[in-house]
Amino acid sequence: MTQNTFGKLKLLKSGGSTSRVMDLLSVQESAGALGLTSKTSMFNTKRLNTSFIVKHTLRAWEREQVSGARISATKIIIPMSETNLDSGGHSIFVEDPGLAEKLSTHLGVAKTLPRFREDIARLRELCALPSFDPYLLYDHFRRSKRKVSDAYFQMSAQEVSQISEFVAGQINLLVRRALNTAQDGSLLQARRLANTLFEDHESEKLDVLRSALNMTPDQYRLSMNGWKGTLYYCWRAGACGKDLSDFLTAINALNLGQLHATDRDEYRQLVAGVSSEAKQRWARVQTKLQQYHDQFARFLNHGDGGALSSFLNAAPELFVEMGDDISRIQHVCASWRFWQGDRKASELPVAEGRALLLDYDSVLSFEEQRKAA
């Protein structure tokens, strides 16, 4: 385990949970009000439930710890003191080959204990997700054998309903075209299949759809998971674009008059760099979304099964790529919004904001991708 002494835990907590940070400590602190119990906690081990789990951009020297040329990893940070975060904490990458051994030693728990092995499996589940977006967590854990509290998702019933309806509507279009059904009597059947696909895409009722798409069961399962994830980002894109616009407006409205003249140019360069990187990330998301819409339209309008099959086969990887880009954007927007609160951008303490912007620069930067390429 690595000891962190940078004093960043308080900053993590002040930013709240985002698509790249799971603030389990805050959830645990509100356990009573949220109806959280030991049976519905994220982990069996108590100290893990007061940790922070972060999608972390790897530095060059950190890649050796995860045995690969990846550009990001999932880090768990365990505070030394839940009541004094300035004390720092200990961290380890979930991808570390020695995760179970090191974590069990640090926590004083036998690594052969079934409850601890469940915790390791849960960490690896979270590691496999491209981001910690509430809906993705909700969709993942509703199908999990060990249920967790809705307190970790913090989604309203209305939001879940809106996403579900959007996804089911898209699936309905696919089902109708794949089965060549357009008559009113067949639409009801297609709608039922669409709802079944959204709720339980492994149902035997969907064999006819899988056959129509000419996919093996494994291909079908992976493709449907990837497609649902891609659809989630299609639905989320509108709000994400507005959030990004608001964020860029806010950081460019900071009152730099609070700084010494010699520091203003450096600050302007930092703001310009963060703005440029955020726009590049958003452009990549838009490109991938357009690719999906184009291929889906070719299938719906011209019956081009090859275009759809090509997309569905690529959906799992596309889902992860889009998830990485959009979660980075969502993270900086949500973190800044949480920090700004009800204050006007021109009233914010720029010296304090600089620490956040430096972190955002690291999150949004393409430099690590270029080094790994």
What does this protein look like?
The chain has 2 domains: 2-149, no CATH class; 234-372, no CATH class. The protein has 373 residues and is an alpha+beta fold. It has helices at 9-15, 24-29, 31-34, 99-107, 114-128, 134-141, 157-178, 184-199, 207-212, 217-251, 261-302, 305-340, 350-364, 367-372; strands at residues 2-4, 21-23, 52-57, 72-79, 89-93. Strands 1-5-4-3-2 form a 5-stranded antiparallel beta sheet, sandwiched between helices. α11 (261-302) runs antiparallel to α12. The two termini are 28 Å apart. The protein is globular.
| Largest sheet: number of strands, sense, barrel closure | 5 strands, antiparallel
How many angstroms separate the termini? 28 Å
Poorly predicted spans: none
Strand order of the largest sheet: 1-5-4-3-2
SSE string: EHEHHEEEHHHHHHHHHHH
Q: How many beta strands in the DSSP annotation? A: 5
The best one-word shape is: globular
Total number of distinct structural domains: 2
| Mean pLDDT level | 79
Estimated share of beta-strand residues: 5-15%
Rg is: 22 Å
Given the helix and strand composition, which structural class is it? alpha+beta
- Number of helical elements: 14
Work out the helicity level.
55-70%
Task: Write a brief caption for the model.
By secondary structure, this protein is an alpha+beta fold. The protein has helices at 9-15, 24-29, 31-34, 99-107, 114-128, 134-141, 157-178, 184-199, 207-212, 217-251, 261-302, 305-340, 350-364, 367-372; strands spanning 2-4, 21-23, 52-57, 72-79, 89-93.
